[in-house]
Amino acid sequence: MDAHEAQITIRRSGHPVRDVLRFYKIYVDGRRVGKVWRNRSAAVSVSPGIHRVQLKVDWGFSPELEVAVAEGDQINLRCMATATAGISSAGSELRKSFREPIIVLELIGADDVESEE
Q1: What residues does each domain of the chain span?
Q2: What span, in angstroms and rounded, lies between the C-alpha atoms of 2 and 45?
């Protein structure tokens, strides 16, 4: 990380088990910048400012999360599959599930990072 940059680290949980063999694609401000596997983390360098972070897998996605970062900041995010995605297979319910987020993406504090390690 350059002295004038900030870093966003995304930690992916192992639970629930869905998507176990697939990586989540990381998008910052609409541009694909990396990927994160189950039970792993990925770091992305960004310029200071406000950024939109989103994860995608196949047809699924997370909501966009807006984060404000200052020079030298270390922003920590956690992601995991939603527990209920893809369960319903009845006509309109299945079509509806393709429009709803199947990945949870949330900001976590430094204390939460230490407890996960």
Answers
A1: 6-110
A2: 8
Does the pLDDT at position 112 exceed 70?
A: no
Rounded distance between C-alpha atoms, residue 56 and residue 98, angstroms: 12
Half-sphere exposure of 86 (CA within 13 A, CB side): 14
Q: What is the pLDDT of residue 95?
A: 46
Contact 26, 46 (CB under 8 A): no
Cis peptide before 16 (omega within 30 of 0): yes
* Architecture label for domain 6-110: Sandwich (2.60)
What's the rounded Cα separation, in Å, for the pair 2 and 91?
50
Tokens of residue 69, six digits: 């970062």
Kindly report the pTM of this predicted structure. Answer: 0.81
* DSSP of 54-69: EEEETTEE---EEEEE
Dihedral sign of CA atoms 75, 29, 37, 72 in order: negative
Q: Which residue has the tokens 């910052």?
A: 28
pLDDT at 98: 58
The two structure tokens encoding residue 71: 């020079």
